[in-house]
Amino acid sequence: MTPPRPARRPPHAQSGAAGALATSPRAAHGRRRARRRGGAALALVLLPALALPALAAAQGGADDWAMVEPALGVASPLAGGFGPEWAARPGAAARLEAPAYGGRARLALRVAGYEAARPDLPAFSAVTALAGWGPSVALGAGVRGGAGLQVGAVRYAFDDGGEFGGFLQNETEAAWGAWLRLDAPLAGRLRVWAEAEALRVALADPATVATASAGLALRLDAPAWLRAVLR
Amino acid sequence: MTALAALLVALALAAPPRAAALLAPPGMPCPGGRVLTRADLEAGGARHLRDVLRLAGLDAVTVDGYDVEPVVAWGLPSAARLRVLVDGAPAAAATSLEPAGFEALPVALGEVARVVVCPGPGVAGGAWGGPWIDVETAPPARHAYGAVDYGNETGDPGPDRYLDRSLPNVDHWGPDAEGALVAPWRSAGGGAAWAVLREHRLLPTDTAIAPRVFAAVAPDRYPSRVLRTAAAALDAGGVRVRAGGRWGDDLPHLAELGREMPTSRRSVQASVSAARGAGPVALRGHVAAARFSLDRPAWGRLPAPLGWTETRLDAAVSARAGRLAAGVQAEHTAASGPGLTDGAVGAGRAWAQVGRPARRLTVQASVSESALSVGGAAEVARRVGPAQLRLTLAVDRTPPRPGPALWARRGYAGLDVPGRPALDAGPPRPTSLALARLGAVVERGGARVEASVEAQGARGPILRPALVPGGVAVGGAFRSVEAEGVTIVARAAASGGAGWLALRASATARGALVGDDAFALAWRRLPAVRGRVEATVRPDERLSLHAALSAWSGAAWTGYPEPDVPSAVVLNLALGKRAWGDRLRFAVTARNALDARERTHPLGAVLAPRLFARAEVRL
Question: Which residues are bridge partners to B533 per DSSP?
Answer without folding.
Answer: B505, B549
